Amino acid sequence: MLNQPVKRLADQQSFVFSQHSLQDYADCPRRFWLRYLEQLAWPAPPVEPLEEYERHRLLGEQFHRLAQQALVGLDLALLEKVAGSDPLLYTWWNNFVQLYPSLNVGQVKKVEFALSLPIRQYRLFARFDFIQMKTDPLRWIIWDWKTGEKVPKVIHLSQRWQTRVYRYVLVEAGKNIFGTESPRPQDVEMIYWFAGAPEKSVHLPYSQEQFEKDRQDILQLIDWIEQDDVFPPTTEEKRCRFCVYRSLCDRGLAGNFLDWEEDEEESQTLSFDFDQVAEIHF
Amino acid sequence: MISLTSEQTRVVNLPLCRAFIEGPAGSGKTTAAIERLNALLQSGVPGHTIMIMVPQRTLGIPYYRALHQFQGNGSEVTVSTFSGLAQRMVGLFWPLIARDAGFAHPEQSPTFLTLENAQYFMASLVRPLLDQGFFQTVKVERARLYSQILDNLNKAALAGFPHTEIAERLKSSWSGAPEQLHVYDDVQVCVNQFREYCLQHNLLDFSLQIEVFSRYLWKTLLCREYLLASYRHWIVDNVEEDIPLAHDFLLEVLPQADSALVIMDTDAGFRIFLGADPESAARLASVCDTDVRFEQYSAAPQVMRDLAIHMRDSVERKESRHPVVRASFSNFREVVEPPEKSLRFFPQMLDWTVEKVVTLVNQGVPPGEIAILAPILSDALRFSLADRLERHQIPYRTHRPSRALNDEPAAQCLLTLARLAHPHWEMLPEKQDLQKALLLAIEDLDWARAHLLIEVCYRRQNGIMTLQPFGEKIQMDMRERITHRIAERYQILFEWLQAYAEHPVNELDFFFSRLFDEVLSRPGFGFHTRLDAAQVTANLIESVQKFRRAVQHRLGDMPLGKEYLLLVQEGVISALYLMNWQPSEQNAVFIAPAHTFLMNNYIVDYQFWLDIGAKTWYERIFQPLTHPIVLSRRWEPARKWTAEEEIKLNRNSLYRISLGLLRRCRKKVFIAYSDLNEAGFEQRGLLLKALFRVLINGGRRD
Ligand code: SF4
Prior knowledge:
The structure holds two protein chains of two kinds. By secondary structure, chain A is of the alpha/beta class. Chain A has helices spanning 19-27, 29-37, 50-71, 76-83, 87-103, 154-159, 161-177, 208-227, 246-249, and strands spanning 16-17, 108-119, 122-134, 139-146, 188-194, 202-205. Chain A has nine helices and six strands. In chain A, strands 1, 2, 3, 4, 5 and 6 form a six-stranded mixed β-sheet that branches. In chain A, helix 1 (19-27) packs across helix 2 (29-37), helix 3 packs antiparallel against helix 4 and helix 7 packs across helix 8. Chain B is an alpha/beta fold. Helix content of chain B is 50%, strand content 11%. In chain B, strands 4-2-7-8-1-9 form a six-stranded parallel β-sheet. Chain B has a six-stranded parallel β-sheet with strand order 10-19-18-11-17-12. In chain B, helix 6 packs parallel to helix 9 (206-216). Chains A and B meet through helix 3, helix 4, strand 2, helix 7 and helix 9 of A and helix 3, strand 3, helix 4, helix 22 and helix 23 of B.
């Protein structure tokens, strides 16, 4: 079955697109097919050494949690103690504390907030670290915390599907959520904030023109995915280094952590997460 | 567009208010609530201000499906259980309450324990006590002993009384032999030690999550304001299956909400043994300003509902208070079908069941309209049914998002290779286990060559079994029989294990992940094309990883992998929970325990009730260390639990379950029974007797 795709997008009763799935299709259609249509678990290390990868990932999660706690109003002094459990986390936290006063203002502050909208017969979903709306001048800012070792190039970030999907979804879905105050493209900005190097943070403003282009490109990509019945493997083999399906595609071994660019784990997109409940019986 | 009854339309069009909706199962309450949800969203209520609370995740499925199909822009609606909400809040506000709640390290993150990991900690605390003579008179498997002790903690938390009162409550209600009182004292020592240990190490089992939320967090202004401001609209479904603490919480929240729908099934309460309390749920009507009763419509036909009423009277051995004309008794025969002739053995009953399923499917009944229900579904029974259905190529789906570890060859293969790779654990595998593992690990290897391979390559060296290279020393005829291709693959695996032995790791999940990536899932190896094996590997890795993260503080020099394997041997870890398990939407026969079927809230055309002579349809399992009723809020402390109470409980359970099932059946119930049960004993339980009384004489006393 693996050499012959059997499941197509059209077979899915309901499908939720996200920045991850669109990026996967753009990087490698085969990966999209394996991950989202076949939902094939392939428990290979995404990167080596696993030990370092895991440590970094857990610290990243802890940082996201601390930022969320701070933004819902927990006392920063309390959180500092938690951050003190690891020197790297503490550095990130201290950088965040510098930023905090500018985050703690504005008419709209939404932490870990998810928005979605219908697109064709599917949905497009985005979960934001933090959305902030400030007046004078009016700005809608999408904050995305990054804890990876590498700071990607601006051009690379601006072209990533995360940037395009997040800004597009905020404008499009925001209409219903934020009422008359809803964001217009020219008032939106996305900021990638690097916890280890805040001075290198990347600001990506938005525009009506880019909004229209994003809409077209997202629809175009979905059309391609709908029509695809081959889902070919990428021809750029370097993309395989950080893909778990390497052994399935016979594409070498795991890439090194130092070359790896942070890619946050896919968040739950309207999916189930079952409680471990004991079976009921008498 | 579905057409709605007038009751449903009324609910959908209610103004923003708090409404209490009551009615029997199958009367369309959830459908009305889903339409109401759509109406709220369409009217501009933001999704993130809506909370849908259900007692069990499966009951949230219809809401998820509706949300997937919603055609508007929006923010995310939350669908949660009370305990899920409690866990999320404890995680978010942890630094705020950790110190007050008694945790020794409030500045460190908490660890939420899975059921298995909680059992692990309980096991490590109880084992030394067993050596000191604790629980000497109790004859149950170790794994069940640990889980029953934990169950006590959960029950205390769900009912809302201190865990320190568990023994006192159990003892004061006990009316049997006095030796049992010591057992309850032993239980108290164990729960106290466990709770203390959790507090010392920031561990939160299910009971502690609930307690920390209800006793500490919910009292803080920040959490209260956060929840009340976040969720302005509440839809609370199947409230009768939820716990009193959830009701207490809702009694405080709902009066402050902008709108609420509280939905209650009458005559339900199937989760009573998990703390459900329908009487407590009824209190929520007092904070609602409108009542809507659903009485018009039922998914089940009238004859099925009449049958349900007569079953109740028959179970309670009362004269029927609901006179029905004689003709309707014969109608019962049209909706209940027993085997044409008596069946002596259990497998014959299964054959009869599957024959009937085949006939229905051949007549054009969609498999998804058929449910095969048993009081308890053992793995063996599940397998027997699945095997028979497969032979007839009838699709089926199983009821739970887990698989038994022992039934998974891929998991066994990985665990065997882990033992081989870590000789210092002193758990080297037997030859036949290694043979099985290689059979799966190496593609194209057959049983005979696997045997030869083991004979020449797994040998005793310096007193211990050691894996050998496929080297020059092996005789030519043997080399030819094993074949060059197999030898080459074996050698790759051997060399990988040799290289690993130079730098072994303590993280067993890393070992599995690398072994999978670098060898087993490569071309020429068994996991490369077996997608199911990859799924099982992923589940196993997740289980080990959760275990590692929870226990690493306590292991010291003890290898994590060895500890994990010992737990598997002891039966504490016996199942793999599937990640991202999605309820199957396929058109397939549903095989499940009757309670699971009820708690999924399905309605089907045809039901098969298996083994209706079994007492397990209504009797509690043997639980010498706990008691679901005595440890509930409803039970007055010091009141004795007597044999009469037990009989009353059994009859009540049977009544509720048969009523629940009949209300979820549109066309026919097939009642399957054999003279001898699975274990070879005759059983003529209450369900069998009550059903036959109804079928023969309409439920009147003989
Ligand atoms: S390994 Fe390479 S070809 Fe295969 S799915 Fe991954 S990125 Fe695509």
